[in-house]
Write a structure and sequence with these properties.
Pfam families: MYND_ZMYND11_ZMYD8, PWWP. This protein has about 350 residues and is an alpha+beta fold. A hairpin with a 7-residue loop joins strand 1 and strand 2. The chain is elongated.
Length: about 350
């Protein structure tokens, strides 16, 4: 990354590292502080070799820290450059024939003579196991020698041929020991081993029918099925009981809820009817009182008007003829009837 002096609006020139250059400008990251990143225009970029007087930068504490960080960054870049240029290549360090990091060549064993017909399978397996163990030991030795060879990479290449020759001799001697040990086995031991193996196989074949008959005697499948059936029946019966109990409980709860709701509705209806009845009674009472008051007033007026009128002494109709101080008649006929009846004896007008 290029090192430059970059300037943002409202800030002085500051040392920075160019991350990317595109059409919009320079994408830089400033030294010091929080290592902030910004996109700066091309005209606000100066080379890092520019003097501080040219860019008119004031020596502040933050600028000094940023310049110190810039110098440390330049020193690290210089050290990396020197290290990459002064490091010797791998080709120049190795002289002579290039060293191969593979396993040492193994000596091919000569084919062994065919085994006798009386040799058993177990004897062959034991010999093969011994040969495999010897091969594993050879591989372990070769691996350890490879580790020693890798640790001695700085040694001169002239010692490689002698080391390879020594490895070949050791591997050939180990292979010879393996062949000799396999050839030294006596035929009598092989025959006895095969006989013992044959007897064991016959004994195993004789015992096989007993092993096959043993599971037939045990009627575990039927027992398991019976136990499973009984357990399932118990679970089903328990499930039915719990289901019936739960249904009954739910029915009772629903019935209680319905009764409570009905009672609540009836109570609400009764309360509403009682309220309406009280309201009707109040309205009727008020209307009756008003009607009584009107009747009383009219009756009083009628009484007053009646008192103001004069009435016939004979028929109690409204009188128009006056006889004496308290005797009046509505007509001449009433006057004559009353006169002959009794009034002629008490009439004050006559006296």
């Amino acid at each position: 990354h290029d090192l430059v002096f970059a300037k943002q609006k409202g800030f002085p020139y500051w040392p920075a590292k160019v991350i990317r250059v595109d059409d919009q400008g320079y994408d830089v990251r400033f030294f010091g502080g929080y290592h902030q990143r910004a996109l700066v225009e091309k005209g606000s970029i100066k080379p890092i070799t520019t003097s501080l007087k040219v860019i008119a930068a004031k020596r502040t504490t933050a600028l000094n820290k940023a310049l110190d960080e810039l110098r440390r960054h330049q020193q690290l870049l210089e050290q990396q450059r020197r290290g990459s240029s002064g490091r010797p290549s791998e080709g120049t360090m190795q002289t002579g024939v290039p060293r191969k990091r593979g396993r040492p060549p193994r000596v091919v064993q000569p084919p062994l003579p065919p085994p006798a017909t009386t040799r058993s399978t177990s004897g062959d397996e034991e010999e093969e196991k011994d040969e495999d163990d010897d091969d594993n030991e050879e591989e372990d030795k070769s691996d350890s020698e490879e580790q020693e060879e890798s640790s001695e990479e700085e040694a001169p290449s002239s010692s490689l041929p002698t080391k390879r020759l020594r490895l070949k001799e050791e591997s050939s001697s180990e292979d010879h020991n393996v062949v000799s040990s396999s050839c030294q086995e006596s035929p009598s031991s092989r025959v006895s081993t095969s006989t013992q193996t044959h007897r064991k196989m016959l004994a195993g074949m004789n015992k096989t029918p007993n092993l096959e008959e043993a599971p037939a005697k045990c009627d575990c499948d039927t027992k398991y099925r019976q136990a499973f059936r009984e357990h399932r029946e118990k679970l089903e019966a328990k499930y039915r009981e719990e289901k019936e109990h739960l249904i009954q409980q739910i029915r009772e709860e629903v019935q209680k809820q319905c009764e409570a709701e009905k009672l609540k509705e009836v109570s609400a209806v009764l309360e509403r009817m009682r309220t309406d009845l009280e309201q009707h009674k109040a309205r009727d009472k008020e209307a009756r009182e008003q009607e009584i008051a009107k009747l009383q007033e009219r009756h009083r007026q009628e009484i007053s008007e009646t008192k103001k009128k004069q009435w016939c002494y004979n028929c109690e109709a409204e009188a128009i003829y006056h006889c004496c101080w308290n005797t009046l008649y509505c007509s001449v006929e009433c006057q004559q009837v009353h006169w002959h009846k009794e009034h002629k004896r008490s009439c004050r007008r006559k006296q």
